[in-house]
Amino acid sequence: MAEHVQVAVIGTGFGGLGAAVRLRREGITDFVILERADAVGGTWRDNSYPGCACDVPSHLYSFSFAPNSEWPRNFSGQPHIRAYLERVTDTFGLRPHLRFNSEVRRARWNGDELYWEIDTASGAYTADVLVSATGPLSDPQIPAVPGLDSFPGRVFHSARWDHDYDLRGKRVAMIGTGASAIQIVPAIEPTVERLTLFQRTPPWVLPRADRKITSVEQWLHTRVPATRAVRRGLLWGIRELQVSAFTKRPNQLGLVDALAKSHLRKAVKDPALRAKLTPDYRIGCKRILLSNSYYPALAKPHVDVVASGLSEVRGSTLVAADGSETEVDAIVFGTGFHVTDMPIARRVTGAAGTTLAEEWKEGMEGLRGSTAAGFPNFMTIIGPNTGLGNSSMILMIESQLNYLVDYLRQLDTLGGRAALDARPSAVHAWSHRVQERMKRTVWNVGGCDSWYLDANGRNTTVWPGTTSEFRRATREVDLAEYEVLRAPHRASVSAPAGAGAGHAGGAPTGRPAASATSTASAKRAAAPAGWPQADGPSAEAVA
Asked: What's this model's pTM, rounded to 2 decimal places?
């Protein structure tokens, strides 16, 4: 028999773990977190390639309710961020709720009983509310290159790094020039025999103002938490002030353009190579990258830049679109992820019997970036138009968690068996407003073709405003934007003795049919002992 829970969360990255913490702070313990891997961490577990690090300052790339005084650098590396997520998991008591090796194969809405039926690799569940926190950077995308299957060497994606394969002394091809590639290139360049970078479009690269955070700073942030909050607030405020240049006045990015060009000139003296690495689109149209070592690595004599995409593989020979050929032993793809066509959307079936992918075939749409019409009691963390071009996604995640919590409160207030389904008119109106604002952003008028755009050329990825605007928009659920669904009864779900919505001994294995939620009557759980008080900008304080 399927295990029933009040809430099922998919994914254990920042979105999934953050949702779990907020549920516990609301007094909700009847939930599971479904994870396809065998450890928490999401993209920070999967991306373990050489040089992997964050391009958002550490003190802003963390939960406001779980500040960390011990970040080692301004921009932390993958091991430190993953360790932080493990600490969040342990400190907030999330381990009993975790279900590892439980990839969601299918989730279907049961309109008669008003719950989700979830089939996973480890068993079946039903849930009153389903939260997808798989994230847009979870499923690697490798282009369909003719002849790739016959390549005799090693092939892997940056997010699935093959640590058993030694690149030392090898001829390596790096495909792509995104955020991962500019970290991988300088990390592997010193040890490979030859490195060839296949570049379709050069990125804009700015200096990376990274340094070690001193022990004095760490001590001060620990003993005087206000200093840590001020640091975080300043980092946030500077980025809020930058937003108008990206969203309303792209011409204001001229100084940033000049800085990037100066950065390139200082590092690359060869005019021919510099010409290859100079973008022909407005800065900001694609994601601006940060690195002090990328350009110097490309200037090394054993590194080649092919200013053309990979078009064909003939044995161990890679053929570029310009006809040039390169012999290699290994191919590393840094070609991004399925962002506008998230695979989880093909596995979620709504009230009409169609999948989310089918409903989104003309482009993703989500009410306030969170809910979709025809998919009751279903929410996506980092949904349509919630991405950022210059700040921390954790701020957007916390805003959506506010929305999730109020969604559950509204269900509790409605009482009985109830579900909320976003009205198509509300979804379309929200999407229309977002797309109208998007028209003048640098992402739409900057003259580039980026992963922000879907197959139809619509920008369904980025939020065209400040994080504080989004925080206000997701502060609470407006019931006028939803249809309230009711069920006269629900078949009883058997539960072992002692299991229930408030079972404290671990994740419950089921509960008798009762109300859909219990959030209004539950007391907010206090932050775990030993964890510092929340830092601003917090989930409540930025609006």
From this structure: 0.91
